[in-house]
Design goal:
Elements (H helix, E strand, L loop, with lengths): L5 E10 L2 E11 L4 E5 L6 H8 L7 E9 L2 E2 L5 H5 L6 E4 L13 H13 L3 H14 L5 H4 L9 H13 L5 E5 L7 H18 L2 E6 L2 H7 L2 E6 L2 E7 H6 L4 H8 L39 H5 L5 E2 L5 E2 L12 H7 L3
Parallel strand pairs: 3-8, 3-9, 6-7, 7-8
Antiparallel strand pairs: 1-2, 1-4, 4-5, 9-10, 10-12, 11-12
Helix pairs in contact: 3-4, 3-6, 4-6
Length: about 325
């Protein structure tokens, strides 16, 4: 029996001949929570948009995407529609751009129930109200016929989660779901995702640049840079002892709100333009640990003795955890 619900193998994406995703290999097991982290533009969202066939027609997608062992990469519309919503659902960071402003919320949720589960009429309404209650919408029956602009930003995100749950998916992909929300509402949405995973058993992919949020939600983490995975391991491994210089740099740039005030250490330079990547490690121009070989030879993502995967010729030596990492690990 295949232990993985979703398998991506050598997934590549190019736009107008420019490659932006360079052979992604990752898996998501049943009930697992996987985090994808990295700076904006590193390929986190593109990975899953490509996997679900949601990129525009000008995108070239190659590789393998298997769901329960069935290949869907390059599949027909009917094959992809059989996966989207019903097996894998996706929510985005700006619910206002995903909710239809001229349709009542109740209708939008019942349409999803009709599409994915064949419910209609009073049965669909009853299930929609149950989902609204489940995600914490107060007085759901009265608010069933309201429009999206009559809800707060946090409530709109909860409604998007309710719509995603309408198809009873095995995997929920949450793409920066808390970015546009204030800190209190962010915490509530994270708690909701954790609660829903515990109650339904669905797997979760949490895409974020917020390492603190990832530490609360996920079991395992993939760190992406310039369209590649550079480090992958458990929460405990990466948060207690990050080995890739880029992963270490992400942690060193995190401020802490308690304890001594230490100067933050930014990562120098900028993310490279995908049109001008060198033959070597894409992070080498920004890396204090780079060697000559890093400039002309690209390190492969290889398994390490502790079980993680790492793409680096000169990884960071084991050291004491930085305060920011210690603080987040205590919350895991």
């Amino acid at each position: 029996m295949n232990p993985h619900f979703v398998e991506l193998r050598d997934l590549k994406v190019a736009f107008d001949g420019v490659t932006v995703l360079h052979g992604i290999d990752l898996t998501v097991g049943p009930g697992e929570a996987l985090g994808l982290v990295g700076e904006s533009g590193c390929g986190k969202s593109v990975t899953w948009l490509a996997a679900l066939g949601l990129l525009p027609g000008k995108a070239s997608v190659t590789g393998s995407v298997k769901v329960d062992g069935r290949e869907i990469c390059g599949g027909s519309r009917s094959v992809l529609e059989g996966v989207r919503g019903g097996r894998i659902a996706m929510i985005f960071q700006d619910p206002s751009s995903s909710l239809n402003p001229v349709l009542r919320i109740g209708r939008q949720i019942t349409e999803a129930l009709t599409l994915h589960r064949g419910l209609s009429g009073e049965a669909a309404k009853a299930e929609a109200l149950r989902l609204m209650d489940m995600v914490g919408i107060p007085d759901a029956r009265r608010r069933f016929d309201l429009y999206s602009h009559e809800f707060s930003g946090g409530q709109c995100q909860r409604l998007m989660i309710a719509m995603a749950l309408a198809g009873q998916p095995d995997l929920l992909i949450a793409d920066e779901p808390t970015t546009a929300l204030d800190a209190t509402i962010q915490a509530q949405i994270l708690d909701l995702l954790i609660q829903l995973r515990a109650e339904t058993g669905m797997a979760t992919v949490f895409i974020s640049h917020d390492l603190g949020a990832v530490s609360q939600v996920c079991d395992r983490v993939c760190v992406m840079y310039a369209g590649r995975i550079v480090e992958q391991g458990s929460i405990e491994q990466l948060f207690s002892e990050p080995r890739h210089p880029y992963t270490r740099g992400l942690f060193d740039a995190i401020p802490r709100i308690d304890g001594p005030r230490n100067r933050l250490i930014p990562i120098p330079g900028t993310v490279p333009n995908p049109k001008h990547l060198s033959a070597g490690c894409a992070f080498a121009p920004r890396c204090a640990h780079a060697e000559d070989a890093c400039g002309w030879q690209r390190p492969a993502l290889e398994h390490q003795d502790d079980g993680r995967r790492l793409a680096c010729f000169n990884p960071v030596a084991a050291a004491r955890s930085a305060p920011a990492r210690q603080m987040m690990l205590e919350d895991v």
